[in-house]
Design brief:
The complex is a heterodimer of chains A (235) and B (445). With 235 residues, chain A is an alpha/beta fold. Chain A has seven helices and eight strands; from the N terminus they run βααββαββαβαβαβα. Chain A starts with 18 loop residues before the first strand and ends in a 14-residue tail after the last helix. Classes of the chains: A alpha/beta (235), B alpha+beta (445).
């Protein structure tokens, strides 16, 4: 039920535990110009980092889903060492709900792949970036599904609002654990730097396990230090 | 003004790194050293000062080899600023040709190093890894010559050079007991590299050298078994879900070990492929040594066996990159490759049965089908572009069917698994009978 368009087949030769990180990026029309340029630059630096860091390149798996009028996998889930920069094109409305569903499908399938191959995993990350508000009818159901997975401690959700048009009320519904954070200007560079350091710290820890429950137990026992948000968050 | 403990003035050069406890600098006047200057805000700084001072007074013999190779970045001299210890100097290591050990144990890391990283791991064979294991033992022996315990014996503190030599770094985190008897502890460590007694004890308990020997065996396992951790990847034959690494370690359940309920994973080598002498050492370390630290082989026992193995290693006739021990009747790496290919064929078939290529675009206006967002009309979407990401060293994802069948394994492996299963059954029946006997006794008594 899964294919290379959504995820590169799991590299079963690499026995290390993995942390899947799915980045959901708003590419609606309002992101045109400076925002999308800054986003693209930030992501290309992130791609270079996940290529190079010796632990991240084999333990972190990255996927990118854009949402404009449709949700689209622009980077299929794959090991950090093969992630490449992508060109983002802004166009259309804000199909955030479809993107969330896609991300949850990718994460659920990948967890199954990990289990089938005897590979342990860290709790996957979901990072949502938007400058507007969801326009698709799927949003309500997708949020419910996301909240359920988060409640079962199956995913860590970070939400970031870009610019004055971001609907923080709706964005806040994506996570019951972490409030949305407003991006300071267009500090995508700093945001992706923070994401790099965070994933590097996670992949250098023993907060993994064979299923969501064990991952949660280990995450409770051993806190992973994340860098402060102050480099990119608006106060 | 910074001075060495002999009074000479010291001039720091370029800052090389910023770490949790301090900063590392080049030293202009002494290119063979680097300086670590502690953060003045460091918690427990006074004890740290005393510790490194004590360490400089009793360096283990062989921390730096006569040819200049650095086995341990052991503190050599303290650096004073006025009357206080500001940091210390340690021998400088050539990091241009070294990798952290995990970049060598993991086969994917070996085969595809980053372009800016050393490329030599591509050529590292199983013979080379045997040598690395032997040199790791030498480094542990060196630490254990003095009253020191590595403690935080983990994958990032072990560096390996292109000539298979091993350096242990972060020596100031080790537990060290000075001559007066005062012990400076090591209160950190990664659970997956910790002995069961360390995990079950308190963080501040003093550690013993035998705990290092458990971690040493884990590192040797990772080196010789394609990066597979002994208590992680396998087929769990017990009840319920496979327990955590620490639970398995405490129970002596290592992948494919005797009496272990964790069988070797089909994509990982089995202990049966190891030379018998090495297998015995793993049994002593992980099975007998799980709760009896005295059973664990020390570093010199490991090294003696590892150094003999070169003579018992042969090369595969089909794939010259495969080196393995002569006790195998066929190449164990080919067996794993066959299993991997068979799985890829199975997965490709499953995908084609599932209806070919679904879209990578999900239209939000379409109602979600019960199967997920990808119900609907896949034909309307263009097929995905060929993946630009060469995850398997450029090999195609589909492979021809394995001529030996998906379950082909050397007879040795099977019989060992069968033996393990039989042992488990016998033990289970014995325990069952004992329980019945106790119950009967209690009822009659």
């Amino acid at each position: 039920m899964f294919d290379d368009a959504w995820a590169v087949p799991l590299n079963d030769e690499n026995p290390d535990a993995r942390v899947a990180c799915v980045v959901l990026v708003d590419v609606s029309t309002s992101m045109k110009g400076a925002p999308i340029t800054a986003l693209q630059q930030g992501f290309s630096e992130f791609a270079a980092f996940v290529n190079e860091d010796p632990l991240v390149r084999k333990r972190v798996e990255v996927a990118v889903i854009t949402f404009g009028s449709t949700a689209e996998v622009v980077v299929p889930l794959q090991e950090g060492r093969s992630v490449e920069p992508v060109a983002f094109t802004a166009n259309g409305t804000t199909a955030m709900g479809a993107a969330i569903n896609m991300a949850l499908d990718i994460i659920a399938q990948r967890k199954q792949d990990y289990k089938d191959n005897g590979i342990q995993y860290y709790r996957p990350w979901l990072l949502v970036l938007t400058d507007g508000e969801p326009t698709d009818s799927e949003f309500e159901a997708a949020v419910q599904r996301l909240n359920d997975v988060e409640a079962q401690r199956g995913v860590t959700v970070f939400t970031v609002g870009v610019g004055p048009g971001a609907n923080f009320t709706k964005l806040a519904r994506l996570s019951n654990e972490r409030p949305p954070v407003p991006l300071d200007g267009l500090k995508f560079h700093e945001l992706f730097e923070w994401l790099s350091t965070s994933l590097s710290n996670v992949s250098n820890s023993y907060t993994y396990g064979r299923n969501d429950e064990e991952v949660a137990t280990h995450a409770d026992e051993q806190q992973v230090e994340l860098p402060p948000l102050s480099g990119w968050a608006a106060v | 003004m910074l001075r060495l403990d002999d009074g000479t003035e010291l001039f720091l050069g370029k800052r090389l790194a910023k770490a949790g406890e301090g900063e590392i600098y080049d030293i202009a006047s002494h290119p063979q050293w680097v300086a670590k200057i502690f953060h003045t805000s460091l918690r427990g700084l006074d004890a740290k000062r005393d510790k490194v001072k004590a360490m400089t007074l009793s360096p283990p013999k062989g921390a730096v080899q006569p040819n200049g190779f650095v086995v341990l970045t052991w503190p050599q001299h303290v650096i004073t600023d006025g009357h206080v210890v500001a940091g210390y100097v340690m021998p400088k290591i050539d990091t241009a040709r070294t990798v952290e050990i995990h970049a060598l144990t993991n086969p994917t890391s070996r085969k595809s190093p980053h372009p800016n990283s050393p490329q030599w791991p591509r050529k590292a064979s199983w013979k080379f890894l045997l040598n690395v294991a032997g040199n790791l033992c030498l480094a542990v022996e060196t630490v254990h010559k003095v009253d020191a315990v590595i403690g935080d014996f983990q994958e990032r503190n072990i560096l390996v050079s292109d000539t298979s030599r091993v350096t242990l770094v972060d020596c100031d985190s080790m537990q060290f007991t000075e001559q007066s008897g005062r012990t400076f502890g090591c209160h950190v460590g990664r659970p997956e590299f910790s002995a069961p007694e360390v995990l079950r004890g308190h963080n501040n308990d003093p550690r013993r050298k035998s705990s290092d020997l458990f971690a040493l065996a884990i590192h040797i396992h990772l080196l010789l078994m394609e990066g597979n951790h002994p208590f992680s990847r396998g087929k769990w034959n017990g009840t319920g879900d496979q327990p955590s690494i620490s639970t398995l370690a405490h129970g002596g359940h290592w992948a494919g070990g005797p009496g272990s309920r964790l069988a070797a994973h089909p994509l990982a080598p089995t202990p049966a492929m190891l030379p018998p002498e090495l297998r015995t050492l793993f049994v002593d370390a992980f099975t007998r040594g799980a709760t009896n630290p005295g059973w664990r082989p020390d570093a010199s026992q490991w090294r003696q066996v590892l150094m003999r193995m070169d003579a018992y290693t042969t090369t595969c006739s089909r794939d010259p990159s495969h080196a393995y021990s002569t006790n195998n009747t066929s190449c164990p790496w080919c067996v794993i490759d066959s299993e991997r290919k068979a799985r890829q064929v199975r997965n490709a078939r499953r995908r084609s049965r599932a209806g070919g290529v679904p879209p990578r675009v999900a239209s939000p206006t379409r109602a979600r089908s019960p199967q997920g967002v990808r119900g609907g009309q896949p034909a309307r979407y263009p097929p995905p572009p060929p993946s630009p990401f060469s995850v398997r060293g450029g090999q195609p994802i589909w492979h021809p069917p394995n001529p030996y069948g998906p379950n082909m394994a050397p007879g040795r492996v099977r019989s060992s698994n069968t033996l393990a299963t039989v042992t488990v059954f016998v033990v289970a029946i014995a325990i069952g009978l004992a329980v019945v006997a106790i119950v009967v006794l209690m009822m009659t008594g």
